[in-house]
Amino acid sequence: MEPILNQGRFCSLYFLEWDTSLLGLGCGRLDLTAEAGRAPADQVLGEARTLLQDQKELDLIAAKIPSPLFQLAVGLLQVGGVFLDAELVFSCRRPGGDGGRGPVEVLDRWEGDDFLPLAEEMKHSRYCLDGRIPAARAHRLWRESISNHCRFRAEKLAVGYEGRKAAGLVAVVPTGPKARNLFLVGVLKEHQGRGIGLNMLKAVADYYGPAFDLEVECLAQNDSARRLYKKAGFVLKSWQYVLHVWR
Prior knowledge:
Layout: E1 4-7, E2 11-15, H1 17-23, E3 27-32, H2 41-54, E4 60-66, H3 70-77, E5 81-92, E6 104-107, H4 126-129, H5 135-153, E7 156-162, E8 165-176, E9 179-187, H6 196-208, E10 213-219, H7 223-231, E11 235-246
Parallel strand pairs: 3-4, 9-10
Antiparallel strand pairs: 1-2, 2-3, 4-11, 5-10, 5-11, 6-7, 7-8, 8-9
Helix pairs in contact: 2-3
């Protein structure tokens, strides 16, 4: 759990130590409490501004603002915020659709570096979309994240194959007793367009069963991901504004 730098009634500000070390920037994250959705926007914005102004050592603060809180998102733009995209949250209990060829294994870990090239394809992620962050640093962060999830951070990994070659990866992390988040869904470039992503989603659903709710996010401009999740039976649950506030 990231350390809390400051906390108020509507907002909490966290220090992202891992992101800071890999990007070479002081990184933080602004989270909203449940009460923020019931409060006047100007009150929430006032508290958010205070939290941001009090942390002089941070260069960059990430914020995901639920779509109903549009005025809060506008207010953050006025204090140095940059709008990157809308993040779509999809939910499904039993993915369906017709997959492609190739088997899928559900594993506890993956020791090899087969999936590190996926980092170069994370163009639709907030660090890669922000032009102030050098692309090499953003890709390095993704390589480390993929490696960590393969070795110990993910609860389960679904690995899709084409022939005998590892072709795709889904990293699953728990978010509740009966809820799982598909943190990463990726197919290596040379194996894309062959139904491997859909095969992996179905394998994850079969492993966890209908009692589990599976969630996955993608940015709105990621057309291929949106098509895949729709084909797999995922439905849009909510969406939020993704902003970076630079100091």
